[in-house]
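Below is how a single chain appears once it has passed through the pipeline. First comes the sequence as given, then the structure the pipeline wrote out for it. We keep one example in the README because the format questions we get most often are answered faster by looking than by reading.
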Amino acid sequence: MPGDLRTTWNDMAARFNDWGPPLRPCAEDIRVMQKMAANWHRASRREKTTVFLCGVTPEIVTMRWPFPIELIGMDQAEGMVRAVWPGDLPGVRRGVVGNWLESGLRTGSQDLVIGDGGFAFFPYPDAQRALMAELRRVQPPDGLIIYRHFAQVEKKESPDKVLSAAASGRIGSFHAFKWMLAMSLQVDSARGVRQHDIWTAWVGAGIDPAGLPQPGWSQRAVGTIDLYRDKQARLYFPAVPEFTALLEEHYDGIEVRFPTYEMGERCPIISAWPRA
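Resulting structure:
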């Protein structure tokens, strides 16, 4: 993980409660993940399921799991593990600092791999392909992967269109706006978008959030974009067909579910079975 990106995540850890959906999973996302996991488990019939969580997303860690688990949550940013992880429970869950690309987990040891948006921080396609291969390595052939993806839309919007929609009060959540703006600035999935450029576009627009009617633009929410200032690390948003093409190199039975909330068309929840 580049230094600027690790710094961003450690900064986020200190202000984690200022972030909200869709940059964090909401109740609808969790219900879909629970259903995907439960459907898979009915066929697998495991007494206890080993789970590898890419990150320390508390909404996933503490969700009502439909079966007994032994979960490992791994994050490269120590600040996230220390501040966001909801705490170890012996025999149930533990949080660790580590690199997903070199997880150190035994081959075939993790029945279920689950994550929320993590691929966006790895260059497309090479690093995302390498991560996909590592996740497949740690799973048995009868496992499952569940992942909420941040996807570029088929007809990319221009930054001016996104900024105009925001200024006229047509984007309800600043967090949705922030990702929509980032995606509009991305020329293509391989180049991604530099974090500092997202901040520059926002500041250059001169929008006064205090004059907007929608409640999702609180001062605390708007302030989260300042963490991108001067950060050279990039974010990568491959479209659904681009991402599933990588997934198909190691997985079968791909299912894509789109949530109904604002920006849901950019937040598909994807499940798949490891290829034997």
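The chain has a mean pLDDT of 95.

See the next section for the split statistics.
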